[in-house]
Specification:
Blueprint: H1 2-11, H2 30-64, H3 71-92, H4 96-120, E1 123-124, E2 127-128, H5 131-185, H6 200-239, H7 244-264, H8 274-282, H9 287-302, H10 308-311, H11 315-325, H12 333-346, H13 358-363, H14 369-379, H15 393-405, H16 407-416, H17 421-430, H18 440-452, H19 456-464, H20 468-473, H21 481-484, H22 488-505, H23 510-520, H24 523-533, H25 541-556, H26 564-578, H27 588-602, H28 606-612, H29 616-621, H30 629-645, H31 650-667, H32 678-704, H33 708-717, H34 724-735, H35 741-759, H36 764-769, H37 772-792, H38 800-803, H39 807-814
Helix pairs in contact: 2-3, 2-6, 2-7, 3-5, 4-5, 5-6, 6-7, 6-15, 8-9, 9-12, 11-12, 12-18, 18-22, 22-25, 24-25, 25-27, 26-27, 27-30, 30-32, 31-32, 31-33, 32-35, 34-35, 34-37, 35-37, 35-39, 37-39
Length: 815
Amino acid sequence: MVGSVRRERRRKGEESGPRKMGTSFRPGGFSFTGYVYLLTYLLMAITGLGYLALTWSTVVLLGGFVTSLQRKDFWCLTVISMLQAARIFNDLGDQLVTKFFNLLIAFNRRAVSVAREWLAFQTIDGKPIPRKKIGNWLRILIVIYVVVVYIPLLPLLAGCYIVVFLYGYGGPIVCIGLALWRIVQRDYGSNDGDDTKANLTPALDLFYCLILCQGVLYMTWLWSHPPGGAFIIVTSRQDYNLPRKWGYIWLVDYLFDTRAKCWQDPASIQGSTMSRYAVDLIDSESWDDNLSGLRMLATFIRQEADVRSLLLPSRARIQKLINTLGWRASASREMREAAGCIVAHLASDIHLAQFPGAIRCISTLLQDEATLTYWWNCDQKQDHTHLRTGSRSTMHTWINILEKIMPKAREQEVNRQGDDDDDRQHKKHVVDVKGGGCNELILQGLTILERLASDQHNCMDICRNPSLLPRIMAPLCSNTLIQGAKTSAWADVVNGSFKVLYRLIRCPGWTGKCLRRDIATSEQGISNLESILDQSNEAGQELQMRAMEILTELALDSSTNLTMETKENLMKKQLEIFLDEESAAISKDLKATAGRTLTFLITNSKVNCSVVKDYFGHLTELLDAKNNTTYRMIAAQVLENICAHCDLDKECVKDTLLPQILTGIQSNKREPPEGADDQGDDEKTETKELQENFLSLTLVIYDNLISIDDFDDAIQKNGLGNGEFVVKLKTIVEENCKETVISLRIVKLCGQIAATMMMRSQYTEHFKNQGFAESLSKAKKIMSNLESCVLFAGTELRLKKIATPLLSEIEKELN
């Protein structure tokens, strides 16, 4: 039973732990950090050598030997010193000259724009100025502006430009060339017996060696900067399957931002990842930065990365994301979609009471499609692609070159059938292809509500909202639901709505009960659910699963007064789907859902069990090892309820059902070795769950249906006589001495079977000789802490069967 709950949660995407990709997803991992550290330390070394060389040239050489230097050494020292000083000025000014030119260009563009707007409002004889004349007058104003403003500043601007050009482009090469020229010639002059000139030659040698060492480091940095960064960016985008349109922009921005932080404080980028960078962008006051951050996180989430640990600790950050959902007039549609994806990722851990206005913001996503279409068309005209750190033409040039020459890039381009295929793949997430994009916000809103409804208090808040609940129920009560469900876009909306309703009606207490009554009293709603059950096309199977789940919950609540005809039709449909072995159109999910809901429906109900009694033989056949493990587990659960509440032919149980069960118990494999992959772990879990179901069914049959002799006869026929069955039970107990809920359940079932057999004086000596009680006692000590936790949570319906009886009570019965 616990296993079925866990599978249900996995099926609905509610993993309790972090979701994983096939390989570890670490956006911006060690490759970026290591590369940035390399660049930063190279630049620090280059700058440090520059400081040392400048100090040496000004203090030691020009200060101490200025009259002893040859003219060519004097000018070499002067030029090199000036270039080193230019670098120091550039570093200390934090790229001040470059920023000055960028601001100047921006100011000029704004001035031209203002002049154009001013001319557009002027008139001649009461008429607007023609566009051609505006252009001519604008040119005249630009000439006047240049003459008045820039000509007086020309010497200053020219000097700044020359300094930037010499250092940024030719300076390092000039320094290397001059130093290499002088150190090769090494004709610094003689000291002429003057002791004051004795150190001139080694001083110059040291200076020129410093410049050459700095040049070597600079060439290393120059080689590592654009090509190395571009290589990391290209491979990272391909490895993480980022969209081509924005992936390079994100990675370039992240690279430059990380490098700037590392230059200020190398320790600040320790543990830095692109996910953290995206979160920082969300905290920014800039809308463009917010959109970039939302895009990044939404992309990572769609690739199954878990970013909850980065977002959940900050309530203000979550509030901002929720508020973004409701900013219809200010936030772009794409921004709201990305925020919706992130909020849906966090929704299972969000408590609505902590976030004022959250329900209002979420409900804005469930607006009518006419409004959605309007906003969608408006937003398509906007292009928010931008580079936060300005133009990076050199980096993008290297990226384009590497993409053309890298074998990996070429191979991926062939596999993807063109460079733009990954953009289309990403667009599939941003714009719902099935819905044409118009219903994406509705689907995200429903997904958020579905995951919020996993918390009981959230359910109460949602149901108390007078405007939200009618919107959620609107598809169910629609007169055109069946006709509209033939289109995939509307079917997706209905499916999302049904998922939310299923969560809400399962809410404990008055909230779920009132909603179940409201649905049950809606004739149109019940009619729609029954009509959906009869759909046989493959496209409607998702809706069939949702309809089964909702109707099952209504049928389990006696206060809904659901008619017996509706209940019987539901069970017959569930049986028809679950036992259908011929139709290939029925999906495994639909078949499993039909069996699972049928199991819930017939639990502790003699009336419902009698309906499925006629299918006893088909259900028994499903226990065979050749069938799917999930189907075998469901069949065992259904048969357990039938055996507990129906009058069955004991000979049939003895001759057909019991041998299948004993064979299943005997054939269960041991656990796979440690180090098995995830698939092996899943198979191991399913094997344990199947073992639990077989043992539980064995206990019910032994207690209610057959005699001691019949059970002993069945054991003998299956090769478990002469105490072998006792050995098998003991082995199962020893294999399950672990602190897991399913192991606790298995150990208790083995103990209950043993206690019942000993009470009937069957194999009593074998149990004592094999030390079964000692094995159970050992398991009790290991599982005592877990059992106390289960007892504490035992009020939950699905844990009651595990909570009792206690292992200590079973142990007493064995002694």
